UniProtKB/TrEMBL annotation:
This is 2Fe-2S ferredoxin-type domain-containing protein. Residues 2-106 form the FAD-binding FR-type domain. GO terms for molecular function: 2 iron, 2 sulfur cluster binding; metal ion binding; oxidoreductase activity. The keyword Iron-sulfur applies. Residues 230-315 form the 2Fe-2S ferredoxin-type domain. It comes from Massilia timonae CCUG 45783. PROSITE patterns: 2FE2S_FER_1, 2FE2S_FER_2, FAD_FR. Keywords: 2Fe-2S, Flavoprotein, Iron, Iron-sulfur, Metal-binding, Oxidoreductase. Pfam families: Fer2.
């Protein structure tokens, strides 16, 4: 369980049609806790209707003693981003965890490729700044559906045109990921953040270019409702429990709410800590951490779903 402290919202800045940047100052003038590029914080807050939310957001940077995060409004999500957009204003308080980091920048690399999809630019920016400060060789590639969704422009433009390539995929088409990544050589590192479909494509392209898996680090957006998701009944064999889970809520969240003993950490399908064996049912895998063999016998309930109405897990 992360430690939390109170922050006040100092400013909210719009970036494009669906992203708002929150600048947060520790209450009482306390100093910001230390953090590293790639870190995220968890926000805990309550809606006007009384619903409790706990959402994780990457640290974009700090400005004048304030922590910067960016929140993308998700209409099909679990509601936390909509609450932050619609109900919170400057001067209001939020509970914010100490910075956590499971997506670290590898020191000492000879060449680093950074790829961001949409709001996945948020952890890439502090990584790029750190590499720039160190005088390291790197390239940042930023993909979005259209130019209006290439958010936080002042941050990536400050890195220089020679360091950043942007791609508006709706008008320009999807770029050649293999060419973008290039062949692996000793000392090369690849970091990517974005939706799971992009990360799967990046992993496949990197493998085709000879990149060892340990040199490819990814961070996904976490559980989201998908169009094909339907209400799901989850049977937990060892616990003797049956849970009905609606689209938009992860299976892991339903288990946590039901006080099921389950191990977890990232909640984004990256670490594999919540891995559970599948007794029956057909999983829809949306993680970015399991190999083909692991997927034949289990799944990550933090982000994955099921193809049919019933799923039985060995928990």
């Amino acid at each position: 369980m992360a430690d939390f402290m109170m922050y006040l919202i100092d400013a909210i800045i719009r970036h494009g049609p669906v992203v708002r940047e929150f600048r947060l100052a520790p209450e009482g003038g306390a100093p910001l806790p230390p953090w590293q590029p790639g870190a995220h914080v968890e926000l805990a807050f309550t809606s006007r209707a009384g619903a409790r939310h706990r959402n994780a957001y990457s640290v974009v940077g700090e400005e004048g003693g304030m922590l910067r995060i960016a929140v993308q409004r998700e209409e099909g999500g679990r509601g936390g981003s909509r609450v932050l957009h619609d109900e919170f204003e400057p001067g209001m308080a939020l509970e914010v965890s100490l910075p956590l980091n499971g997506f670290t920048l590898h020191p000492g690399s000879t060449r680093t490729v950074l790829i961001a999809g949409g709001i996945g630019i948020t952890p890439m920016l502090p990584m790029a700044r750190a590499l720039e400060t160190a005088g390291a060789s790197y390239q940042l590639h930023y993909l979005a559906r259209d130019s209006a969704r290439l958010v936080l422009a002042a941050d990536w433009q400050a890195l220089g045109e020679d360091r950043v390539r942007t791609y508006a995929t709706a008008s320009e088409g999807r770029p050649d990921l293999g060419r973008m990544i290039g062949p692996w050589q000793p000392g090369c590192e690849l970091h990517a953040c974005g939706p799971s479909v992009l990360l799967e494509a990046i992993r496949a392209a990197a493998t085709a270019q000879g990149w060892p898996q340990r040199h490819v680090r990814v961070e996904s957006f976490g559980a989201r409702a998908h169009d094909e998701d339907r209400p799901l009944r989850v049977v937990l064999r060892q616990s003797g429990m049956t849970l009905d889970v609606a689209p938009g809520k992860s299976i892991l969240e339903a288990m946590i709410e039901a006080d099921v003993f389950v191990s977890y950490e990232c909640k984004r399908g990256e670490c594999g800590n919540c891995y559970a064996g599948v007794v029956s049912g057909e999983p829809l895998h949306r993680d970015v951490c399991l190999n083909a063999r692991q997927r034949t016998i289990g799944m990550t309930p933090c982000v994955s779903w099921a193809r049919g109405p019933l799923l039985e897990l060995d928990l």
